[in-house]
Design brief:
This protein is mainly alpha-helical. 69% of the residues lie in helices and 0% in strands. The chain has two domains: 181 residues, no CATH class; 285 residues, no CATH class.
């Protein structure tokens, strides 16, 4: 089930109503533990219905991974705890490898050795498997490290992994952040509903108004790049970066808002990334949950930056290459991740030189300009059907290729709107005297002006929404 589907418009109010019923006096008279268990069972069933809407068979796969994580975590106080850790890490990785990367590895092996593959039947990729696999891994590892205690209640473990707002496209939630919330009284309340609905609305606007309306322009240009002028190709590159941001951050906003309406808090996944002055800062602001996960569970275990410069560069390249491979079973994603790693290595290597350059508003603006364009151009690799097409596309831009001039209103509108929102967020942060950070311009729905603003924005979103079929980009990951 998708957030931007008709079934969800029925599903979410139904789940919300069922959760709200537990606020009635009859439920409030129960013991807290029993009342919380009813809520958790409602959410768990709803989460499996949400996931099974695509393909009910994969519910058993998610349940299997949940059982592995739960059982292995319970063994961490036993003498065979290391064996439990190995099982808790290897099994999810094998499942991920089979259901997402099997065909990629087989095809790559056959291409390498010139083997003609006669059986080309590919396994269907389970939606969201990269996200809930990583959550099961982090839970097992954190219990082993002693950061959290093993959860004795299987319902809690299952709900942590399957919680539907963040199930299929993140953000990747850590057990230490979510499990404690299941032990607290998390009621349906107007205090949570006000910000939750508004955050969801921001997410829907990003997705169905900006990202989806830009989509047809990008699809037209990328389907035949040789037919378009260099200026159009450059605009399409900008537009795709904006689309990718609005599509994924829009999903994350809907997830955060949806969870907030139900009384739960999820971490933000994006933090005005387009103002990043360097590649390291960009990854602290873009897909924050993934970059944090990889840093904690891959980069640091490899040695991080504590084993010499050469090893540090190698660890950075491995970390970002895995990040690329995580996005999809294709070589273009691997190369995209590797190039991002190379950029981080260059940034680290040029540290002594950069320290000598005075920090001024002009140099900061130049750094933001360069960083933005670097990620715009490697995003072409991310979007293109293969590496050859991406290189051809980039070549047309730099050789000032002549062709059709296609000025997309939605491409320019999305670019201006996103950059404008970033600048407003920076100005807001400056007024508060804090580091530039994103924020939601929430209003009080208890006032007439607040309600007017909310429904006006809702009306704009509905009126400008793209009505074509356009799934979230990150569902394929």
């Amino acid at each position: 089930m998708s957030f931007v589907s008709r079934p969800f418009l029925i599903f979410f109010p139904t789940v919300f109503a069922l959760m709200a019923l537990t606020n009635l006096p009859a439920f409030q008279a129960m013991e807290q533990e029993k009342r919380l268990r009813i809520r958790h069972i409602i959410l768990l069933i709803a989460s499996y219905v949400f996931y099974g809407w695509w393909d009910w068979r994969f519910c058993f796969l998610m349940l299997f991974l949940t059982l592995v994580a739960h059982v292995c975590a319970l063994q961490m106080d036993k003498p065979w705890r290391k064996t439990a850790l190995v099982i808790g890490v290897v099994v999810p990785l094998v499942v991920l490898g089979i259901f997402k990367y099997y065909d990629f590895f087989i095809n790559s092996f056959c291409d390498l050795f010139g083997i003609v593959r006669t059986n080309t039947t590919a396994l269907v990729i389970a939606v969201g498997i990269s996200f809930y696999t990583f959550q099961s891994l982090s839970y097992t590892i954190d219990v082993y490290r002693g950061k959290i205690e093993a959860e004795r209640d299987f319902i809690h473990t299952a709900l942590y992994i399957a919680f539907f707002p963040q199930l299929v496209a993140g953000p990747i939630v850590k057990a230490g952040d979510f499990l404690p919330q299941l032990r607290q009284e998390r009621n349906i309340s107007l205090q949570n509903l006000e910000p939750g609905l508004q955050i969801m609305l921001f997410g829907f606007f990003k997705k169905v108004v900006i990202a989806d309306n830009i989509g047809p322009f990008i699809q037209a240009v990328h389907s035949a790049p040789s037919a378009y002028s260099a200026g159009t190709l450059l605009l399409a590159a900008y537009a795709y970066f904006v689309q990718l941001y609005c599509d994924f951050s829009g999903y994350s906003d809907i997830a955060v808002g949806c969870a907030k309406c139900l009384g739960y808090d999820l971490t933000r996944n994006f933090d005005i990334p387009f103002i990043s002055p360097n590649v390291n800062e960009f990854w602290r602001r873009w897909h924050i949950s993934l970059s944090t996960w990889l840093t904690e569970y891959l980069y640091f275990p490899l040695g991080g930056s504590k084993k010499g410069e050469a090893r540090t560069y190698l660890n950075i390249l491995i970390n970002m290459t895995v990040c690329g491979l995580w996005h999809g079973p294709e070589w273009k994603y691997v190369i995209w991740g590797f190039l991002s790693g190379v950029a981080q290595c260059v940034f680290r290597a040029t540290g002594p030189i950069r320290k000598k350059i005075p920090k001024t508003p002009l140099t900061n603006a130049l750094n933001i300009f360069v960083t933005f364009h670097f990620f715009c151009f490697i995003a072409i690799i991310f979007c293109a059907k293969d590496i050859g097409t991406a290189l051809q596309y980039i070549g047309y831009i730099f050789t000032l290729h002549r062709g059709i001039r296609f000025v997309s209103f939605w491409g320019i509108f999305g670019l201006v709107l996103v950059w404008g929102a970033h600048l407003v967020a920076c100005a807001h942060s400056r007024r508060l005297g804090i580091r530039p950070t994103g924020y939601y311009p929430l209003v009080s729905l208890g006032s007439f002006t607040g309600l007017l603003a909310f429904f006006l924005f809702l009306g704009i979103t509905v009126a400008l929404a793209y009505t074509g079929q356009s799934p979230f980009i990150y569902f394929q990951f």
